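BUG: 3D viewer hangs when loading the predicted structure for this chain

Environment: internal workstation, default settings.
Expected: structure renders.
Actual: progress bar stalls at 90%.

Input used:
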Amino acid sequence: MLKQKSSEYRGYRNAGIRMREEMLPQLGQLYGARTRAMLPAVHAFDKAHTVMLVEEGLLARDAGAAILRELRALDRDNSVVETRAKVGGGLHSGEQYVIRKLGEDIGGRFHLARSSGDLSSVAINTLQREKLLGVMRGINRLRRVLIDLSRRHTDTIMPGYSFGQHAQPMTLAHLWLSWAATLARDFERFHGAYRRINTSPAGAAIMVGSNFPVNRARTAELLGFDAVHENCADAILELNADDSLEVPSVIAVLYHSMAKWADDIIQWSTSEYRFVDVPDRYCNTSSIMMQKKNVIGPAEVKGASAEALGCFVSSYHALKGTTGLPITERYYALETLWRVADNCARDLGWFCDLLPALDIRTQHMREQAWMHWATATDLAGALVSRRAMPWRTAHQIVGILVRLCEERSLTPAGVTPALLDEASMLYHDKPAGLTAPEIREALDPGKFIAARTLRGGPAPAESMRQADLFLLGTVDDEKIVAAIDARLAESARKLEGAVDAILG
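Structure tokens produced before the viewer hung:
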């Protein structure tokens, strides 16, 4: 007899059924390792599916109660993952466990109308939404940190850069508010991905569902999904995997920004910049160069960002191919995705801790904000507003002035009315006519910042307006996450309540 003894049940893939020989143990171990992270989600699906079968009359109430009782035992023992992993079977570990406990006549009934397809798709979607939510919380926390820091640094003037050269002055508040604006867009991307991910594949089986009248909406409700995939082929990741590409893509986009910010901090901490001092707890030293203080924390973010991009590329290649072909390959990409998502939440938390701890050298930053001609545009602006010059004329005159000062080793502090007149005469045989106080005011970085009161500018009052606005957006997005958490908690209560009702 080929039927297995219940106490030794090893699953449906055994020699003598469809296959002539046993699977290589190494292959089974690979499958078990890959699916381990999915086991809590599969456990919930096992319970929800069993509840639905009983409610729809597809499984006798006594049998359903016996199955749910055994599944509940794993909850009481807090051994869902360990016991299922020990039992084996990966996604089908619940069935193997119950058959060993109750025999095939009972335990062999609750896989009705399911397949590895919807088992894996439900588990993957559940894990993806968990990872997305973890990162969404981190995004909102960092937004609050940046907004709070910005309020404190509206007068912290620093150089802006383009092409790696001093461009125009800005404030640390202005820069950090730009980071907060970026994170607001990241949240929108993550929330959009969450909405699309949180759609239930349960009941789709492998692509066409079942001829048994399962209630897909009920299973979705018990598992916390907001909707049901309307097309069973679309529901199964082996067939249509765009959502499993979207999650690594939004993480990679976020990491692109985080790596840039990490680069900023590393650069600011160098001897050449000396804008900030990074606390020693985020640093290491050299085994040979004892004077070194290596900023390790931000460097870890840069490395993690490379893996995030690699995860998207791996996912793209693993999931492409003809419909129904890329099945095993996707697990390789998913293993990386779980790690990348966890790293992303970790690194967002790291930014939240590090940024407030930076020792910011405000005076040095302010000095650098005009020493390399970053305020030259406002000197040209003074020629326009005070001497009615065309902008291009003023632009050319100040360009000549900068060249003359560089040739004579003069800084902006050395500009005199005579020197500006000399530049003006070289350009169009007319003196500039600005006084020394007018020149000093035009080149002053504080005046430069104060004059940028336009919407989106770095003037302190405008930065405070932006901070208020960005905080409102953050609060709204925190409410979104809180509402999601509440819906998921309510679904979990419904599931356990439905189990209680069947157990009587």
